[in-house]
Specification:
α1 runs parallel beside α3 (about 55-80) and α3 crosses α5 (about 140-180). About 85% of the residues lie in helices and about 0% in strands. The protein contains 6 helices and no strands. The longest helix has about 45 residues, at about 90-130. The chain is rod-shaped, with a radius of gyration of 21 Å. It is mostly helical.
């Protein structure tokens, strides 16, 4: 995660928060380690976001707590999937395939949403002009806003799933990098997954923002 750091205390605070969560990994079994690593990643993400929003250590602490809980949930999911495979290589192959399948499906959804956004924007602008000119009814605007609400809910769902998939992939990638090294074939494929998932999540986030803007501008 790339962030502009303006306060010298921020990296130390986040490092301390994450360190306190994952320092107990020694002596844990494989599943416990995965859960702890998931919590650490979630705390890192949450602390960064909390600090960015509030600009103080309290925000970072709150963000880390929330992020740690989300990260632990991600870790539990990974640990459960890992337990289904006889060896690590089979698990990593399955995770890579899982990421790739998600990217294909989410990108297809994002492309469709992008096309729908352009259409809905044109329709909404036209209806607004016609309503002001007395050529469209208020009911037509209400129906259009309802359509926008449905598309916005769909876009938010895609974005939420993309965030979850990215968190999962990042956790598995970090673990593989630590255990197998940066040049390992599985690690490199997972890294590629993470890069693609970030792009997918950014597109889904942009779709949410675009739809939200159209929806907010549809005054009735």
């Amino acid at each position: 995660m790339s962030m502009s750091i303006r306060h010298s205390g921020k990296p130390l605070l986040i490092a301390a928060l994450v360190g306190s969560l994952v320092s107990g990994c020694a002596g844990m079994n494989d599943q416990q380690t995965t859960v702890a690593q998931g919590a650490g990643f979630g705390a890192l993400l949450g602390a960064g976001l909390g600090y960015a929003i509030t600009g103080d250590s309290r925000g970072a602490l709150i963000g880390a707590a929330a992020g740690g809980l989300a990260g632990a949930a991600v870790g539990s999911s990974i640990a459960e999937r890992k337990a289904q495979y006889a060896n690590e290589e089979d698990f990593l192959n399955a995770e890579i395939a899982r990421n790739q399948e998600f990217i294909r499906e989410a990108d297809a959804e994002n492309r469709q949403l992008y096309a729908d956004i352009a259409r809905l924007d044109r329709e909404s602008r036209r209806l607004a002009r016609e309503y002001r000119a007395g050529k469209a009814s208020r009911n037509a605007l209400v129906q259009q806003k309802s359509s926008l609400e449905k598309q916005l809910a769909k876009a938010k769902q895609v974005n939420s799933l993309a965030e979850k998939q990215l968190a999962d992939a990042n956790t598995v990638y970090s673990e593989s990098r630590q255990k197998r090294g940066a040049q390992d074939q599985y690690t490199r494929k997972l890294e590629s997954n993470v890069v693609q998932l970030k792009e997918t999540q950014q597109k889904s986030s942009q779709n949410v923002a675009s739809l939200q803007k159209i929806y907010d501008n549809m005054s009735i």
